[in-house]
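Batch job 17 of 40 flagged for manual review because the log was empty.
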Amino acid sequence: MMTYKGYHGTVTFDEDAETFHGEVTDLRDVVTFQGRSVDELKAAFHESIDDYLEFCAERGEEPDRPYSGNFVLRIDPQLHRKLAALSQEEGSSLNRWVESKLATLTNQRG
């Protein structure tokens, strides 16, 4: 995975065309890039992000931002109460406690 200005790109290699193809992930808009070498690919990735941001600015639109770190989760009120109690027992806010549990879960899966 490639990263530039907080945006991430994934890359595949087309063996027949001998070209790397990439796409910026986590956006509603489609932003792609390609190159024949690693250096060319990186430059194209950076240029695509810069072009996307410039295009949004010209149109007066806010560009999509990859994952703000906020998400809404709707759960059963009884479960909410139990989770809040568990987080308090561990001396943590519910937000920090859930974040810690999710981080542990994702680290276990690699």
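Reviewer: the log was empty due to a logging misconfiguration, but the result itself is present. The beta strands are 2-4, 7-14, 19-24, 32-35. Unflagging and moving on to job 18.
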